Each structure stands twice: as structure tokens, then as C-alpha cells.
Amino acid sequence: MMLKRKCSTKGFTLVELMVVLVVLTVLVSILIPSFTGYVVEARKKRCLVEAEKVKDSVELYLLDRYPNGDVDTMTVLEEVSEHTLGSPESPLTEYLLIKCSKDAYIQNLTLSTDGTAVRELIYVVDGYQVELLNGQQKVKKVR
Fold this sequence. Notes:
Blueprint: H1 14-65, H2 73-81, E1 105-111, E2 118-125, E3 128-133, E4 136-141
Antiparallel strand pairs: 1-2, 2-3, 3-4
């Protein structure tokens, strides 16, 4: 007595499953590099926005602490860079409009001639150095 195999058309063959896996692997390998590029650009943009807010906070600090504008850049730089931004010891903490990233600090600062505005700010945050120079903005990796 010969047994007949029952042919079933339900399900997928191993070859079909392997083809689908190969196609998915190729698609993922194409998408991941472009996705990481978006992540890096978003991180740079966040650092830039944070630097702009820190600049605004320094200007608020200047207006409150030195209303007559009789201040020099080195004094302010020493005051604001002595402690990590956002720490309770930092004089800028009460003026910060945002929560700064951990270990963020002001590397350099230049004030306007009247001492009421920031002309140049170099801010380091999350491995990026953000330069705000006379309306121009530069973000570069420092690690």
C-alpha cells in the first residue's frame, strides 16, 4: 500500500522566507545611515538652540547685575564660567530659560562695547562646540 502525500498550498516555503529576509536586510542597511544622519543633525540643532538660550540668559544677567553697563568681559566670564551651568552655585541658574545639559559650560564670552549684550559666545555642550559670532552660528564636534 502506497501512501500518498497530501499537497498543501498553505504557508510559505523556506526559500520564500529567505528572500523576504534578504530584502528586509537590504532595506534596513539603506535606511540606518540616513536615520543616524538625522539624529546627528537634530543633536546639533538642540545644542545651537541651547546656546542661543544661554546667550539670552547671560544678557538678562548683565542687565540685572550691571544695569549701567560698567562691566568688563573678563569679570563676567569668570562669574558665569566658574560653575557648571544649571548648578545651584552658578549665578546664571536663576536666569536660565531652559534646563542646560549636564557638563555644559561657557568657554568664551565677548560683550558689546556698552556691556549690555553678548557679541560672541562659545558654548560647549554634549561634545559639541557652538560659536555664536556676530549673528553667525557654527557647531562643530570637539571629541
